[in-house]
From TrEMBL:
Every Tetrahydrofolate dehydrogenase/cyclohydrolase NAD(P)-binding domain range: 139-279
Gene name as annotated: folD
Protein's name according to its UniProt entry: Bifunctional protein FolD
Provenance organism: Natranaerobius trueperi
Annotated function: Catalyzes the oxidation of 5,10-methylenetetrahydrofolate to 5,10-methenyltetrahydrofolate and then the hydrolysis of 5,10-methenyltetrahydrofolate to 10-formyltetrahydrofolate.
Record pathway: One-carbon metabolism; tetrahydrofolate interconversion
Family in the record: Belongs to the tetrahydrofolate dehydrogenase/cyclohydrolase family.
HAMAP family given in the database record: THF_DHG_CYH
PANTHER family for the chain: C-1-TETRAHYDROFOLATE SYNTHASE, CYTOPLASMIC, C-1-TETRAHYDROFOLATE SYNTHASE, CYTOPLASMIC-RELATED
Organism ancestry: Bacteria, Bacillati, Bacillota, Clostridia, Natranaerobiales
Subunit structure: Homodimer.
GO cellular component, one term: cytosol
Matching Pfam families: THF_DHG_CYH, THF_DHG_CYH_C
Key words, A-Z: Amino-acid biosynthesis, Histidine biosynthesis, Hydrolase, Methionine biosynthesis, Multifunctional enzyme, NADP, One-carbon metabolism, Oxidoreductase, Purine biosynthesis
Single GO MF descriptor: methylenetetrahydrofolate dehydrogenase (NADP+) activity
Length: 284
């Protein structure tokens, strides 16, 4: 058996078509959804991601501004820029590309973003709302994963969902979203005693550990849905956290890397920016 490959590019494109219409509608109401991205330093991967965000935003008719700061910028200057963007009524979404240089306190920066403009949904207020089930924004990568599951009509209610990885950006929030849909959720990590025994129980397996080809086919329950969130760049090539060739023999559905979760992340970021613009409009 060979799994059906979940085409994240295609799903993302479909959603972007809807978003483009929403942007056009908002523009006729005099509101141009506007995303501001802050890039500190010149890490090549970050530069690529930021220009992809800018390009995709423009493709659906959205406004985008990229603020580029040198790697030795002071924390104070960065916080000042965020303050200006918070106060700028024409900006609806603010994203600070992570990781930041070590001399800058990441938490302090995230905490300074207006929660209403926090399209990454990393601010503690938005994290708290997600935990309480009253969210304003859904964090981009987890939101994208839910859309991918939806695209294959994946049943979630009552299923065993196993998450490998407990990051604030993916592992923790995706666990909450799956729990909201009544999955039985287990979160595994580096101290998990028998990882294979856990992953083999998964009807839905989400892997976000940042270790190339960490999960192999023999760790997967036959017929499972496998979502690979890994983006490991090795000698210029993008490698997932799942060993694709062996995994696709066990799984019923699987996401590739590239072309799986990645394209969804950016699309959901644009979705959140449109949501922010709509919420702003309703406050006026
Ligand atoms: N504040 C913040 N928010 C983020 O959402 C954020 C961040 N910082 N820092 C870095 C990570 C990583 N990330 C990705 C986005 C798109 C792809 C993506 O589109 N990947 C393509 C391939 C792109 C390529 O070839 O390089 C794919 O998987 O098909 C991957 C990774 C967002 N991140």
């Amino acid at each position: 058996m060979s799994a059906q490959i979940i085409d994240g590019k295609k799903v993302a494109k479909g959603i972007r078509g809807d978003l483009k219409e929403e942007v056009a509608k908002l523009k006729t109401d005099g509101i141009a959804p506007h995303l501001a991205v802050i890039l500190v330093g010149d890490d090549p991967a970050s530069k690529t991601y930021v220009s992809m965000k800018e390009k995709t935003a423009n493709k659906i008719g959205m406004e985008s501004t990229v603020k580029r700061l040198p790697s030795d910028v002071s924390e104070e200057e960065l916080l000042q820029l965020i303050k200006e963007l918070n106060e700028n009524d024409s900006v609806h979404g603010i994203l600070v590309q992570l990781p930041l240089p070590h001399h800058i306190n990441e938490n302090k920066v995230i905490n300074s973003i207006d929660p209403d403009k926090d399209v990454d949904s990393f601010h503690p207020i938005n994290v708290g709302n997600l935990v309480a089930g009253k969210k304003k924004f859904t964090p981009c990568t987890p939101a994208g994963i839910m859309k991918l599951l939806e695209s294959i009509n994946c049943e979630i209610n009552g299923k065993n969902a196993v998450i490998v990885g407990r990051s604030n950006i993916v592992g923790k929030p995706i666990s909450l979203l799956l729990l909201e849909q009544n999955a039985t959720v287990s979160i595994c990590h580096s101290r998990t005693k028998d990882l294979s025994a856990m992953t083999k129980e998964a009807d839905i397996l989400i892997v976000a550990v940042g270790k190339p080809e960490f999960v192999t086919g023999k760790m997967i329950k036959p017929g499972a849905v496998v979502i690979d969130v890994g983006v490991n760049r090795i000698e210029g090539e993008l490698i997932g956290d799942v060993e694709f060739d062996s995994a696709k023999e066990a799984a019923s559905h699987i996401t590739p890397v590239p072309g799986g979760v990645g394209p969804m992340t950016i699309t959901m970021l644009l979705n959140n920016t449109i949501e922010a613009a709509k919420a702003w409009k309703n406050k006026q």
